Amino acid sequence: MAAPAATVHIPPSAGRRPARFDEEAPVADPGAYPYRDLRDYLHTLDGEGLLHHVDRPVDKDAELVPLVRLQFRGLPAEQRRAFHFTHPTDARRRTYRGSVLIGGFAASRAVYATALACPPDAVADRWATAFDHPVEPETVATGPCKEHVLTGRALLDAGGVTAFPHPVSTPGFDPAPFLTAACWVTRDPEDGTYNLGIYRGMIKGPDRVGLQMDTPTQHIALHLAKARRAGRRLQAALVLGAVPAVGFSAAQKVPYGVSEYAIAGGLMGRPLDVVRCETVDLVVPAHAEIVIEGEIDPTHLESEGPFGEASGYMGPRTNSPVLEVTAVTHRTAPVVQAFISEFPPSESTLMRKIAFENVYLRFLRQSCNIGSVRRVVTHEYGTCNMFFVIQLSNPTAGQARQALYATSGYEASMGKTIIAVDDDIDPEDLDAVVWAMSFRMQPARDVTVLPGKLPRLDPSAATDGSVASSSALLIDATRKAPYPPTSLPARPYMERARALWDDLGLPPLQLATPWHGYELGAWSDEDRRAAEAAVRGELPPRADH
């Protein structure tokens, strides 16, 4: 018999504190990043009406993710919310002391901006500041993540990794629960620099977690390769439930050798408090909900997957490394964070979209010195890895192609289709992009195919992971010469029509760009005079033969 549908407790009004957290919220400097930990952030989400609490038992493996998934298939983006499950269970009616947060970082743009503690229109500036002014972490003696420390026999007796309610992400297809929001912390075996990255982890047992990295260019893969060459095991720590700035930094495309801890400090405008691990030589966020410590043998691989991927398809079963768990530390009644991922759009695609758009714009404008670039837009149905649109304003000859090549080369596995458009094309609007491709480019002149791209969870690529069948498509859909005006009424007439529309009480408008006609260079004074005469009711003069 099917379980009844979960009921949702709508969050309390702003200012009212939920009873499910015991700590008092700190009084923060209004100009500073206000969150000390994930729980402070949840209080704010609650007060902003951006968090649903589900207070009845919900099966973490069969019900939890499907419930949250519904909003990504059936609600407008702005209505999506984070979900907090306070009584997760499973098919055996097991109870857990912890709860589950999903959609907590990027269920919507409002959620994302709240996690960064800035207005939506200030997100780009917040990221620019973080990259320009990174702040290194500060090591403290201890922190809430050390409230419970489990090693050795006590770790196994407590259930190890399986003691927490990690959900099954794609029930009906996934073979196990996976960690989807874990920040994997490692250090370069040669120079000791830190890397934080979000990689999925298959739960294989109380003391074993698989590691899937997508491509060999991932920074943790480079650390593993160095450890293999040195004949060493790679130490790692998995952080669940860190303050949002840490999760955002771990998901960002940060240059190799740059510490995501410092970028997180830049997002916060202050050092991140970190503590030393119990069994590995690493530091982790002091206020994290759960920390899983261990080592990876870079020479040992095991079967991992399949898993529902962001491509919208199940990924293949692969041979991947395994973390051998040596310790688990956690807070009392920890909040287990998971991402809603897999089929796009999702929380993970929105996180990538906002992060990648900012980092690619910065790269093209600053590193490549292409000042005509106005926006870089990635599309969630391309997982924000595959489909890019670059908007340029009056590019000089060759600049659009330069931007296309530079974008393709920034990351070997990203940018399968990259399109350059003019600044009168909204890069978010695929209808407008199709219009530009249809009438502003010629395939023989403006389309380039680059072979040798690194495939990334792409079923159309070679199944052996080789680059032989993987490539990138670069399309210059910018105007190469003056064009006639767009065939819409000119702006004064459309503005007059808008006023009349409102006076008539017609339904509210959501105007697409362009919503009025405008000139594009190929229009003469004679053409303008004739058009002006037409709206005065005058016919063109009779032509002489």
Tally of DSSP β-strands? 25
Helix content: 25-40%
Gap from first CA to last CA: 87 Å
Helix segment tally: 14
Average per-residue pLDDT, rounded, comes to: 90
Low-pLDDT windows of residues: 1-30
Secondary-structure class:
alpha+beta
Summarize the biggest pleated sheet.
Answer: 9 strands, antiparallel
Rg is 26 Å
Residue share in β-strands: 15-25%
Envelope shape: elongated
Oligomeric composition of the shown chains:
single chain
Task: Please provide a written account of the structure.
The N and C termini lie far apart (87 Å). 26% of the residues lie in helices and 20% in strands. Helix 7 packs across helix 8 (260-268). The protein contains 14 helices and 25 strands. The chain is an alpha+beta fold and 545 residues long. It is elongated. The strands form six sheets. Strands 7, 8, 9, 10, 11, 12, 13, 16 and 19 form a nine-stranded antiparallel β-sheet that branches. The protein has a five-stranded mixed β-sheet with strand order 21-22-23-25-24, sandwiched between helices. It has a four-stranded mixed β-sheet with strand order 1-3-5-20, with helices on both faces. Residues 1-30 have low confidence and may be disordered.
